[in-house]
């Protein structure tokens, strides 16, 4: 099952995707400057590709992802002033 929605952030939009994989969901929130990913995806690979990527954990839905905090992020996300324990709603304003 695939869920897709657009979330308005200021005058821009974030794409939100949730996909059922085995017993858990893969969650991604993507903006023009970077993305938020759940624990299914590999932060080391995102770093290698020079992505501004943010990892969140313990979420199963898009709604939960929007209420989460940053678990970790790539150095490229840090350059955008994204940091650990920052609220995702604040991150979305940065990456939109």
Kindly list the characteristics that best describe this protein.
24% helix, 6 strands, alpha+beta, 34% strand, Hypothetical protein Ta1206 fold, six-stranded mixed β-sheet, 96 residues
Explain how this protein is built.
This protein has helices at residues 43-48, 62-66, 75-78, 88-95; strands at 2-9, 12-21, 24-30, 35-37, 53-55, 72-73. With 96 residues, it is an alpha+beta fold. It has a single domain (2-95), classed as 2-Layer Sandwich (Hypothetical protein Ta1206 fold), CATH 3.30.1980.10. The longest helix is centred in the last third of the chain and has 8 residues, at 88-95. It is globular, with a radius of gyration of 12 Å. The model has no long low-confidence stretch (mean pLDDT 95).
Order of helices and strands: EEEEHEHEHH
Mean pLDDT: 95
Name the beta content range.
Answer: 25-35%
For the secondary structure, the number of strands is: 6
What's the arrangement of strands in the largest beta sheet? 1-2-3-4-5-6
- The number of helical elements comes to 4
Assign the CATH architecture: 2-Layer Sandwich
